[in-house]
Specification:
It is a single chain. This protein is an all-alpha fold. The chain has one domain. The chain starts with a helix and ends with a helix. It has four helices and no strands.
Length: about 110
């Protein structure tokens, strides 16, 4: 049951943020850093959401597989801070979605 919860949570997380990143993310560059929000969504968020979902769908059977899932969840959690830093946050909707990313990824980490 715990594994089922983790898989469902990660799939919801992945689907929501991939859709949000491709449709709702404003293209905004940081004040002092070169990466745009779109680049961060495509380069960090999307690959780690997909990798987390794929890892959990495979039903991790050993510590190494669970560590891999934890790594992807931790990177997604850190991405919240990157997305919010350096003046990249274009709106309250963006801030709310980034907070959801932080909370959901933290929830996955706690379950792992």
């Amino acid at each position: 049951m715990l594994r089922r919860f983790i898989v469902i949570l990660s799939l919801v997380l992945m689907g929501g943020f991939l859709a949000w990143g491709t449709v709702g993310a404003d293209e905004k560059k940081g004040a002092t850093r070169p990466a745009t929000t779109k680049q961060l969504m495509k380069g960090i968020i999307a690959p780690n959401c997909k990798a987390l979902a794929d890892t959990l769908k495979a039903n991790p059977a050993d510590d190494e597989a669970w560590q891999k899932a934890a790594m992807h969840a931790a990177i997604l959690n850190e991405a919240h801070y990157i997305l919010m830093a350096d003046g990249r946050c274009p709106s309250g909707e963006w801030a709310g979605a980034a907070d959801t990313l932080k909370g959901c990824s933290q929830g996955v980490l706690e379950k792992i």
